[in-house]
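Take our chain:
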Amino acid sequence: MRPDAATANAARFDAVIAARDAPALPLLLAEDAEVIDHTTGASYGRSGSLDFYRKQLRVLDLAVRTEPLATLGDSLALSRVSWSASAVSGGSFDVGAYENETILLIEVDPSGRRRREELFRQDHLGDAPPRLYERYAELLPEGPDPV
């Protein structure tokens, strides 16, 4: 697998979460960022993403690990992402230790900021590669291939 701008963004994202660097989060997301969560059917924009990530930074012993699986072009990557923590408390309910794994399609803009994220359940790995190719095709310029 060849590293690209999307895998570089994922590595920076993991480092920002590990450092609990909330001010750096907006630097990783494009202004027109969007998330499509195929696990729940939800979708949201940049502000929703920032809210989610900022809340995660308050979780004790939070760890995020992104393992690149494939890249396509300069701006797309498919990764396995694991979120884990020893516990979550203080909200409307408490949760013990947990780990959540998803498959994540990341698309970055020319500045290397996340423009699009699509999440897939771990047990639906087969849905993610076709979507990677579909997204790549959607990003190609229209018209005949240049000679």
Remarks:
- The chain has three helices and six strands.
- The first strand starts at residue 29 and ends at 37.
